[in-house]
Request: fold
Amino acid sequence: MSLINDALKQAKQSQSQNPPSGARPLPPIEHKSSGGSGWILILAAVLFVAAACFFAGPMIFKHKSATVIMTNSPEPIVTETKITPTNLPETSGTNAAAEIVEQFPKVQGILFDAALKPVAVVDRKTVHVGDMAGIYKVQKISRNSVTFQRVDGSVKEIQIGE
Reply:
């Protein structure tokens, strides 16, 4: 133990004889501001104004009134016309039968999935197999067409858009 105590005493004496150098401690590092945030704010403001003009401009300038150009046009000349009665040919009392055109339903879209029930949009209504579309019953829905059956039993297949 005495050896350790002797070594400590000797170290204290050597430190007091050789004081540490008097160099100043280093100053803390100061970071310079980059100054980059100023131009980013200006750029953001310019982009905001440009976007506002892009979207609001057409709405503001869309409704321009048409310019009316007045010209001096001559007055229309009015002449009297003589109406003479004519004899109309006699017609029979019956009219010709007008051809009746049958209105088929319009297939506007088909949602076809093999895992699910197919669905068709007919005359702006959604129908499944077995549903009625007007006087027609939906018999089958395929990828591109819908098969309808009339009340009398006749069948009509209609493609999309027909």
User: Anything to note?
Assistant: The first helix runs from residue 2 to 17. Residues 129-157 form one domain. The helical segments are 2-17, 37-61.
